Amino acid sequence: MVHKILIVDDEPNIVVSLEFLLKKEGFEIAVAGDGEEALAQVATFDPDLLLLDVMMPKKSGFEVCEALRADPGRTGLLILMLSAKGRDTEVAKGLAIGADAYMTKPFSTKELVAKVKDLLGVA
Fold first, then answer.
1. CB neighbour burial string for 25-64, b if at least 16 within 10 angstroms, e if fewer
2. Side-chain-facing half-sphere of 5: CA atoms under 13 Å
3. Long-range pairs for 81-89 at CB < 8 Å and ≥24 separation?
4. How far is it, in rounded angstroms, from Cα 92 to Cα 89?
5. Neighbouring C-beta atoms of residue 109, cutoff 10 Å
6. How far does Cα 53 stand from its chain's mean position?
7. Helix pair angle (35-45, 61-69), 10° resolution
8. CA gap 58, 24 in Å, rounded
């Protein structure tokens, strides 16, 4: 089974590199550039995992995470938050509102791929 990942980030350079990296690993990828687009993409693409930036236009990653966690139909959706905000309070907030994991930018692509595979249970 091919896992589907939705990359949600308003920084094109990050999106392009993550998309390339994860496609190379065999994942099916979709992209959203802001929080509202993310929610629309979740409804149509039905991803297994969301790579979710915190600071974005229209809706923050925190707002997107809260909205998805409030949706009973999305209980199996995994959320990995990505943010330049790495203070303990931001990490704690992300995990408290339902993120499955939190990584701070800049991150090692090797670490990110390992975390994605770990969350999805892929060897």
1. eebebbbbbbbebbbebbeeeebbbbbbbbbbeebbbbbb
2. 26
3. 81/52, 81/53, 81/54, 82/9, 82/14, 82/51, 82/52, 82/53, 82/54, 82/107, 83/53, 83/54, 83/55, 84/54, 84/55, 85/54, 85/55
4. 5
5. 13
6. 7
7. 40
8. 30
pLDDT tens by residue, 24-52: 999 999 999 999 999 999 999 999 999 99
* CA-closest candidate to residue 65, choices 31, 95, 40, 91: 95
Residue type, 95: L
Q: What DSSP element (H or E) covers 28?
A: strand 28-32
C-alpha span between 65 and 77 (Å, rounded): 10
Which pTM does this prediction carry? 0.94
* Positions of the chain with pLDDT under 70: 86
Q: What is the CA radius of gyration of the chain?
A: 13
In 10 A of CB 89, how many CB atoms?
8
